[in-house]
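[Solved] Which block belongs to which protein?

Original post:
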Amino acid sequence: MAINLQKGQRINIGLQKISVGLGWNPNEGTGYDFDLDASAIMIDQNRLIPAEEFFIFYGNTDSPDGALHHSGDDPTGGNSAHGDDEIISVDLSLVDPRISEILFVVTIHDALVRKQNYGQVRDSYIRIVDDSTGAEIAKYELGEDFSIETGIEFGRLYKRDGSWKFEASGIGYREDLAFFLAKYFKGQIIK
């Protein structure tokens, strides 16, 4: 039976291959499609991305160590009415040894231009699925905590004492995807 996580709650993963599913349903009537983008940020012990390729999003769907694969962009929020809109597959056995944490964030594309925010999105969640059985292990639903934010860190995988754990983060920002890249990457961006 899946665990319904609360903000800040942590669980042991105990698996090598999982899928991180992110889903949402936009409210109607804003005049634009909701293009929410799921991303994974692989960071080291200094909380920095060791190389640009460890920033996984619709423009870079595979990590260089082969550990992460992004399912691709859902530009309208219509991939699934009742399921995951974007999925990031994770093989924890392949994660580069420099990586100690993987952050999962969702940002609203062109939020400023489209005047969109999380107050106009409902049923937002992140869930962890066992790849071998398809069973849901844990799920964290955002609820009504976020109204003016345009980017949310939903959760994070992190390594402690040689094993991987997951925390439901639930941290909101009034920022876009570029903010997260600038926050965690200090090298020159070449793409």
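(Second protein starts here: sequence line, then its structure tokens.)
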Amino acid sequence: MENMKKVEIIIESVYINRLLDLFKNYEINGYTIIRDIEGCGGHGLRTADEVTDVFSNNYIFTVCTDSKFEEIKEEIRAFTKKYGGKCIVSDSMMLL
């Protein structure tokens, strides 16, 4: 098993492609996106029944090595500061 970081990000759907570009720049090519999630945060209540996805939130998570996370963490911090959203990071292990 290898020590990893699980990176979970909740972000407005309109910014998802910018986040994916950031991942691509750091060669993070594996991730999962769950679209139209509901919840309440800094921008108020977000529901999954909007007519368009402009005001919906997406959840994306990835798992990367500790060293890869160290490379990208300040970029993610700047990203969420600029566009909003939440990033939760936890220690994880990958069963190989």
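Accepted answer:
You had them paired correctly. Confirming on the second one: The longest strand covers residues 2-12.
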